[in-house]
Design brief:
It is built from 7 helices and 9 strands, in the order ββααββααββααβββα. By secondary structure, it is α+β, with helices and mostly antiparallel strands. The chain has one domain. The strands form 3 sheets. The protein has a 5-stranded antiparallel sheet. It has a two-stranded antiparallel sheet with strand order 1-2. Strands 3-8 form a two-stranded antiparallel sheet. A hairpin with a 4-residue loop joins β5 and β6.
């Protein structure tokens, strides 16, 4: 389908704002993510053959790795669909990748976070949270991998809504604090 197709054209709302089709936003987000790789064309090929591509962190974005037990404590659930909904709400639709083999969650944040949130990152280590930046690679799933499936190595727990849209570090910090509170409260002797 060509980009001039009516289904993919921006639509002007009554207020005059342009609204782009989901396919356009997804393609733009895909280009943005892959531009973090030194060889975007090669990364795209890997994405389509392997479903996941390793992207370097610290240039366009960084990631905060949150252990599943913290997220499950906030969600009061182990069901992926319930956890995904809580993350979507708590992080205002900021993008989050889930590696179900931990499980571990990776909130995508601005590239500067590992440098500007050093004290918080040091405090988070007690809860097995890690702030990942330069010198680190993250396995990023294709943007259409939005549900856990059998054999899935990673999926978008909260899909990237548009290029450059990342999680607010403050909202991620609040989520971590809430998870640590609930988790450590449960583990404390009565």
């Amino acid at each position: 389908m060509s980009s001039s197709s009516p289904a993919l054209r921006p639509v002007r709302t009554e207020q005059g704002a342009l609204v782009h089709a989901d396919a356009d936003r997804r393609l733009a987000a895909e280009h943005w993510l892959l531009s973090a790789h030194p060889q975007p064309a090669r990364a795209r090929a890997e994405w389509w053959t392997d479903d996941v591509v390793l992207l370097p962190l610290g240039t366009l974005f960084s990631a905060i790795r949150i252990p599943g037990r913290l997220v499950q404590a906030v969600a009061a659930s182990t069901k992926p669909e319930e956890i995904d909904a809580i993350l979507d709400e708590a992080l205002d639709s900021g993008p989050v990748i889930c590696d179900p083999r931990g499980p571990r969650y990776y909130a995508l944040v601005p590239a500067s976070v590992p440098r500007t949130w050093t004290q918080a990152a040091d405090d988070w280590r007690v809860a097995d949270v890690d702030c990942l930046g330069r010198g680190t690679y993250l396995g990023v799933p294709r943007l259409d991998a939005v549900q856990p499936t059998s054999g899935t190595t990673a999926y978008w727990s909260v899909p990237m809504p548009a290029p450059g849209v990342l999680c607010s570090p403050l909202k991620v910090a609040r989520l971590i604090a809430a998870g640590a509170h609930w988790l450590f409260e449960e583990e404390a002797p009565a």
